[in-house]
Design goal:
The chain is of the alpha/beta class. The chain has three domains: 240 residues, 3-Layer(aba) Sandwich (Rossmann fold); 162 residues, 3-Layer(aba) Sandwich (Rossmann fold); 86 residues. It is 30% helix and 18% strand. It contains 19 helices and 27 strands. The strands form eight sheets. Strands 1, 2, 3, 4, 5, 6, 7, 8, 9 and 10 form a ten-stranded mixed sheet that branches. Helix 11 crosses helix 12. The longest helix is centred in the last third of the chain and has 20 residues.
Length: 658
């Protein structure tokens, strides 16, 4: 792994940072077709392009171009625009072209691949990736220190890439039809002009339009799409690097299943607990993800599972407000999913269990209104899984999300690595130095695709004496053989193990299961942070003085897969547990905390007591002549007999004084 000291040199002579923002008339422009030779460098950064609004027109432009190392000197800061494709064989080096086309806003989905191609082309001291049988034996002998003559002659074959990434336009300023036309036309032209057999897939919002192009061009498309329906049409040239998003809820399903042998306080077992699944009916991602949770819960034996499916784009009361933004509609969904928590214990037959459902919520923005409603009515779920728990929404709402569970493609705690970076987090740190912003997991995925394409060819020619991918891609039989090699490829990547199922989508590992859990601050405090730390300590002291538990800091921790997990899942959530003896349910505190899953218990005030675990909203006053000796959180009250010095206490049991 090279040091960060080489970041600037790599940028200087490997990647061309490009782009063009054209101030054209807002009037509709005539349709135009674009070729590689027509496209100009972008003058804005990828991230800047990603922020364009509906009034910002953008002409298609090349945002990145990475050349083979032996052609870098010819670049000199300008596009090469060769009359012939660069794909070909140069002595023992094969140059393969690779293309990507994205809409303006997908900067994370395009900002990883250039880094991957940089490192591939710079491998082996700038010769590229070694392929073929000679490279395998040479590597072995180099490690053993033998056969120096072979190494000096270096008869190994190498692989380098010519990578071109194009921004097709700003969909916010175009009709959907016109953007799709541009995207498809440019992608077809790039494949043809550059003789490119590999396509780095675009972001999921524009991904469907690339599938037909891949099949017609017989170009290998590596899609960045999670929902399984995308891969069901058996397109022979479409592969998927994303993990099946239907797997996202499974860690939570499994954590609930682990409770199935535990006796609950009301005599029921976990398989009888109510589970409510709320999701949209017109989005493949939201629908298939939560539908998967339903299917797996039923298969696990849960008996009380209810789906609450809604049309987010409909208008239930014809008031002109779509259901996804209609407060009355969403409040109704919330009430259907969870009922108020009782404020007093009435024995085991009070239906207490029904007040602690496990919730699964597949929504985009609807959760804001539903969570607010649950706080208002005193809903106390035992767990909550939400699609939004791993999004920026969760980071922006830290008070809401403690103990929320979620799922995703990747997590910073993953330790998967490759030959260039020790982890995805290290890659993101590296790219932040290049691009000036902190990237998301989409950058990790995007980076992994070119590296996976290289691994595809390394595996395909592992025992070939004279590997010739150029000739094989040029012939129908050779290309089909390489396609079949991709179907059976098994590779370790920075994104994790990759292999493909019968639909040619990645099934190499499980999805990342996450939960917002408390963290402890173990790092030493820097000198400039000491004042802030003292304020935090005083804040926690005040919490204790108020009869509250110290406030915890929460972070989105990795809880699955098991071998990568950094923490264990917490189920049942604090909100669904009875307050311990010496405390009571503080409804006001729950609403103030803003979280439906955090603990809402306060210590009993001075001269009150609570002898048992409970869900009461107040403690019992000490009987006349007794007190708690000035202490909070007491299970008993004390009294001193006048004619004796021994201490007696009052305890509540079965609603009788003893």
């Amino acid at each position: 792994m090279p040091s960060y000291g080489i970041v600037i040199p790599l940028m200087m002579f490997v990647v061309v940072f490009l782009s063009v923002l054209s101030a054209v008339s807002s009037e509709e422009q005539p349709q135009r077709d674009y070729t590689y030779e027509d496209l100009r460098p972008c003058t804005m950064s990828s991230q800047e392009i990603g922020t364009l609004g509906p009034n910002d027109d953008l002409e298609p432009c090349i945002i990145y171009e990475v050349l083979p190392t032996f052609l870098e000197d010819q670049l000199q800061g300008q596009l090469l625009h060769p009359k012939e494709p660069l794909s070909g064989k140069y002595n023992l080096t094969s140059v393969i072209s690779m293309v990507q086309v994205t809409p303006s806003y997908c900067f994370n989905h395009r900002d990883g691949a250039p880094t991957g191609v940089q490192f591939l082309n710079r491998d082996n001291n700038g010769r590229g990736v070694a392929i073929g049988f000679a490279s395998v034996t040479a590597d072995i002998e180099e490690n053993d220190g033998d056969n120096q003559e072979l190494l000096q002659q270096d008869q190994r074959h190498y692989l380098q890439f010519h990578f071109v990434s194009v921004v097709a336009g700003n969909p916010n300023a175009l009709s959907q039809e016109e953007y799709d036309r541009r995207h498809v036309q440019i992608l077809k032209s790039m494949i043809s002009d550059l003789d490119a057999p590999y396509i780095v897939g675009t972001c999921s919002f524009a991904s469907t339009i690339e599938k037909e192009v891949a099949e017609d061009s017989q170009a290998f498309l590596m899609a960045q799409v999670g929902p399984p329906g995308f891969y069901m049409d058996n397109n022979p040239y479409v592969f998927g690097i994303h993990i099946d998003s239907d797997l996202y809820p499974l860690p939570t399903v499994q954590s609930l299943t682990l409770l199935s042998n535990q006796e609950r306080r009301d005599g029921l077992r976990a398989l009888d607990i109510p589970i409510k699944i709320i999701y949209r009916d017109k989005s493949e991602f939201f629908y298939s993800t939560c539908r998967s949770a339903f299917v797996h819960l039923k298969a696990a034996g849960f008996k009380n599972v209810e789906e609450i499916i809604f049309d987010h784009s409909g208008d239930h009361d014809n008031d002109g407000v779509a259901n996804e933004f209609d407060e009355d509609f969403l409040v109704g969904l919330a009430d259907q999913a969870c009922v108020p928590h009782p404020t007093q214990d009435h024995g085991d037959d009070d239906g207490l269990d029904s007040h602690h459902p496990a919730l699964f919520v597949c929504t985009l923005t609807e959760q804001d209104i539903m969570i607010r409603r649950w706080l208002e009515i005193g809903c106390r779920p035992m767990s909550m899984w939400a699609t939004a728990a791993t999004w920026g929404w969760a980071d922006e709402n830290p008070d809401l999300v403690p103990y929320f569970q979620g799922g995703g493609q990747w997590h910073p705690a993953f330790t998967y690595n490759d030959m260039y970076f020790q982890s995805g987090s290290e890659l993101l740190d590296y790219n932040q130095r290049l691009y000036g912003y902190a990237g998301s997991y989409d950058q990790v995925v995007n980076y992994a695709i070119p590296v996976l394409f290289a691994q595809h060819l390394v595996a395909a020619y592992r025992v070939a004496d004279d590997p010739d991918p150029i000739s094989d891609f040029a012939s129908s039989s050779g290309r089909e053989a390489l396609r079949r090699d991709m179907m059976v490829l098994k590779a370790d990547t920075i994104f994790g193990p990759v292999s493909f199922d019968e639909n040619q989508r990645n099934n190499g590992r499980d999805a990342a299961g996450t939960q917002w859990l408390p963290i402890t601050r173990t790092e030493s405090v820097e000198e400039e942070e000491e004042e802030e730390e003292e304020e935090e300590v005083e804040k926690q002291i005040q919490f204790v003085r108020m009869g509250k538990k110290p406030e915890l800091q929460f972070a989105n921790r990795l809880v699955a897969p098991f071998l990568q997990a950094e923490a264990a899942t917490v189920v049942v959530a604090d909100s669904a547990k009875r307050c311990s003896a010496g405390s009571f349910v503080n409804e006001t505190m729950w609403v103030e905390n803003g979280s439906i899953l955090k603990n809402g218990c306060n210590l009993c005030p001075v001269d009150t007591f609570q002898p048992e675990a409970n869900v009461n909203n107040q403690c019992n006053p000490c009987p006349s002549g007794s007190n708690t000796k000035g202490d909070k959180g007491q299970e008993i009250c004390y009294a001193v007999e006048e004619n004796c010095c021994h201490l007696e206490f009052w305890r509540l049991a079965l609603l009788r004084w003893v």
